[in-house]
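Structure ticket #2291
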Amino acid sequence: MALQYMSGFGNSFETESLPGALPVGRNSPQRCPYGLYAEQLSGSPFTAPRADNQRSWLYRIRPSVRHSGRFTKVDGGFWRSAPCHESDTPPGQMRWSPQPIPTEAVTLVEGIRTMTTAGDAGAQGGMGAHVYLATASMVDSYLVNADAEMLFVPQQGALRFVTELGIIEAAPGEIIAIPRGVKMRVELIDGPVRGYICENYGGSFRPPERGPIGANCLANARDFLTPVAAYEDKEGPCTLYMRAQGVLWVTQLQASPLDVVAWHGNYAPYKYDLRRFSPVSAVLFDHPDPSIYTVLTAPSDTPGMANVDLVIFPERWAVAENTFRPPWYHTNIMSEFMGLIYGQYDAKPQGFVPGGASLHNSMLPHGPDMDAFEHASTVELKPVKLTNTMAFMFETRYPQRVTAYAATSPTLQTDYIDCWSGLKKHFDPTKP
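Resolution: structure written out below.
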């Protein structure tokens, strides 16, 4: 089927897969068209301010209580939730090579490997940073996350998310957000996949405020795409996995839970093409803060200290004069989990490769390696376009704890700290 999208972030949408399935003028009529059930899905408290209130009305074949049952706990594999204190890893800068894709059949539910956790999922604060690996589509099985919003960042291979509110696809260079509580089945489109997930335990992601930048640039609302309604009227045994209270649970159903025929509201999955991000940067001198590359933010109760931000480092022109152009050395109260989708990251030309990851925790210094420093300090500063590159960062106010899986992974680069060992002393008090 041809996919269609309605664009705009935070707007209220309405979509139906059968003509007249959406009630007109009221959310919950005494009798819904086509014999459907009306049901509200709330992503915020009922009394949240209008600008923060998130909810959608769903018109479905069966109410969700029919898509539930007696849950039993199952092995969650390498999927962890905060708080997770299984590894007392010494503080230090950490980096991993890409996690190898399994040779056996592994679905998304089985292929989530948690690298770090932060905060407390039960307290609805913090995040989890994961790598996902999959070689098989989910068949007659579904996943719902009651603990967190899931932000997918594909790095290899494309994914199809068949959700309650419609079908949406993403390939490397795009992101997909699945709101907390939305059921989905994840299918592979063109072979094995690998990528990253930010499990956001706090308030939903949204574009950041632009401040003096004004009304345009960064991530523009019109570029966020939401699916149209598409339902499954499918009976037969199937499996529903639920992530709740930091545990993976399972129940057996007798019909597909993806049976929403129509919906309206502002709480829905969406995708965004990171290549549509419009960067703003210095055009004369100095290197601006990386916050100018924020695509999405999940605010906390402290202004300016995000629960988690998604920051990217895309293609862009570097034109600043008399300036050290790569990211400067810094020590940050925020903690940074980075990944590389494709290309080369300008501050780490060696060792940080697509599919890999790094962690620079709260108050740990980091910055360009020796080769990047020497090159940037001596190169002729002509305008240069950084091309074929897309790195990203999950940045959070919480310190990130490394899982046992990440701490013992063969992909952990134990010599990462050595990338700075060659930095020389250039100080000479006789030469200003």
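Closing remark: The first helix runs from residue 370 to 378.
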